[in-house]
Design a protein that fits this description.
Layout (H helix, E strand, L loop, with lengths): L4 E2 L10 H7 L1 H4 L13 H18 L6 E4 L2 H15 L6 E5 L4 H11 L4 E5 L9 H7 L4 E5 L13 H10 L3 E5 L18 E5 L10 E5 L14 H4 L7 H39 L3 E3 L10 E6 L4 H10 L2 E2 L15 H5 L4 H4 L2 E5 L6 H20 L2 H15 L1
């Protein structure tokens, strides 16, 4: 089997073996339905309560403000649609950004079809929201602001605390999609004035199919999924107990190692960015140079197609991405890259590499050498690159 260098950790992560060990008893030994009244289900109830405590402590929240879901997409949908439904009598205007995950963008479009108005704020060339522009977009009928904590494609970390302060000042609810940031960046919901927060376990070495939505106490959000009294009558359906247990263990491990992992990943990320930008001509870094997730590097290579680059990297055993995993297979360029001002032809040549705590300097060196070789080969077959070189040579000759 060929060597595999996995650099797509923004898409999903490897489940930590300790997480698997914590989950296994809840498949074969403690398999009771937590909604049942008999004693056999007690370990399930207690395990869920323990995970709620772990997550709440991490966020500076209360246990009863954590609601389990099947992941970030459900949590995002719940936050937007339930807020719109509950506060429609107060107003029908929502503010978000042009670079949100499609779980927010598409939910916003759905709400627009239900006679809500959504403002999609632009961002600058680094992907940052202008907080002054955000405040100017607020109207008397604005009921919700939703801005992601960190972008899933370009890694830019938004000014969440400032946005939260603006929302609180105007009496508007504030939601953040923290799927990429939770357990990678320190977050305190009270310091940042966050009213709702979405997260997903498989982004921090937990299992797929489980996540949570933090809902501040006092918000009158209703159920998103109907059919039962689970999650304090707010989220119907038998709870995924093994997944919830695994998520709790993953949070414990990630929080204990966050600072060490950030330091290591930042050093490798900067090494990767430095080598690529200095050794591959006609390349740019997408996203903010320093205000970015510690494991994220996103490049745009002129005169090539990102899909071809990904396929050839895969042949070298390197797993990367051209953007969000949720849009793989799409022929359209990333909406995030277009929003930061990249022309279509450049946006098509993008590559996202996201590291983990297992990534090594040798992995980075091998990847950079592969990129250099593949980009050179693809450009040698590009008529656009050939025309560019000829035009430049002609200009230099004159």
């Amino acid at each position: 089997m060929k060597k595999v260098i996995y650099l797509d950790n923004a898409a999903t992560t490897k489940v930590n073996p300790q997480v698997v060990d914590a989950m296994l008893p809840f498949y074969t030994e403690h398999y009771g339905n937590p909604s049942s009244v008999y004693e056999f289900s007690t370990p399930c109830k207690e395990a869920m309560a323990h995970t709620r405590e772990i997550i709440a402590k991490t966020l500076g929240a209360d246990d009863n403000e954590i609601y389990f879901t099947n992941g970030g997409t459900e949590s995002d949908n719940w936050a937007l649609t339930a807020t719109a439904e509950a506060y429609a009598s107060k107003g029908r205007h929502i503010i978000t950004t042009q670079i949100e995950h499609h779980a927010i963008i598409h939910t916003g479009q759905y709400l627009e079809s239900r006679d809500f108005e959504v403002t999609y704020l632009p961002v600058d060339e680094t992907g940052l929201v202008d907080v002054r522009e955000l405040e100017r977009a607020i109207r008397p009928d604005t009921i919700l602001i939703s801005v992601m904590f960190a972008n899933n494609e370009i890694g830019t970390i938004e000014p969440i605390k400032e946005i939260g302060e603006i929302a609180a000042k105007h009496g508007i609810l504030f939601h953040t999609d923290a799927v990429q940031a939770f357990c990678h960046e320190p977050i305190n919901v009270n310091e940042c004035h966050i009213d709702m927060l979405s997260a997903s376990a498989h982004k921090f070495n937990g299992p797929k199919g489980v996540g949570f939505l933090y809902i501040r106490k006092g918000l009158k959000l209703r159920s998103f999924i109907h059919g039962g009294a689970q999650e304090r009558k707010r989220r119907a359906g038998t709870e995924n107990v093994p997944g919830i247990v695994g998520m709790g263990k993953a949070v414990e491990i990630a929080q204990a190692n966050m600072e060490e992992n950030k330091k290591k990943e930042t050093a490798l990320r900067d090494y990767l960015i430095g080598r690529v930008l200095s050794e591959v001509p006609f390349t740019r870094l997408n996203g903010h140079a320093s205000r970015r997730l510690s494991n994220n590097a996103n490049f745009a290579f002129q005169f090539i197609e990102g899909e071809s680059l990904l396929i050839m990297l895969d042949m070298e055993g390197i797993c990367g991405s051209s953007g969000s995993a949720c849009t793989s297979g799409s022929l359209d360029p990333s909406h995030v890259l277009l929003a930061i001002g990249l022309p279509h032809e450049v946006a098509h040549g993008s590559l996202r590499l996201t590291l983990s705590d297992e990534t090594t300097k040798e992995d980075i060196d091998y990847t950079v050498e592969s990129i250099k070789r593949i980009v050179e080969r693809l450009r040698s077959m590009s008529p656009l690159y050939e025309d560019f070189v000829k035009a430049r040579e002609k200009k230099e000759f004159r």
